[in-house]
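Thread: "does anyone have the structure for this chain?"

Original post by V.I.:
We have the sequence but no experimental structure in hand. Need at least a predicted one for the grant figures.
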Amino acid sequence: MKLLKFIIAGVVFCAMPANAMTALEIAQLKKLDPATRLEQRCDVEAMEVINRSESGFSPDKVLAYAFSEPTIKPQSIIAKGAALRSRNQWYRLSYSCKTDTDRMTILSFKYKLGGIVPHDQWDAHYLVP
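Reply from O.Q.:
Generated one for you, tokens below.
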């Protein structure tokens, strides 16, 4: 299941910059099933918020399920075991995210950025360079 989510995320948001979504990215999100759209939209929000809030970070990838499966409800996700890639380095991340009914508009988002993930743990958690 993790591998399938990873492939979908890579196809939809390959090397996506951490700034406002383009019309094409919005259109791609809307084509996804609701659960995947929720996860991807919240992952994008994580990159955007961290890019604005954390000095020295330039996120280009988030995996909500890197260290543990997120708790997903119809319009919210709690990802305690997420990971964020910035400047070719992976960091631990946890976040909670709530959206509206179409899973496109973020209603609330909170996060906690953790430490660097050692390189020797990357493969086990689907963290690619």
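V.I.: this helps a lot. The chain has one domain: 2-125.
O.Q.: and Confidence is low (pLDDT under 50) at residues 2-18.
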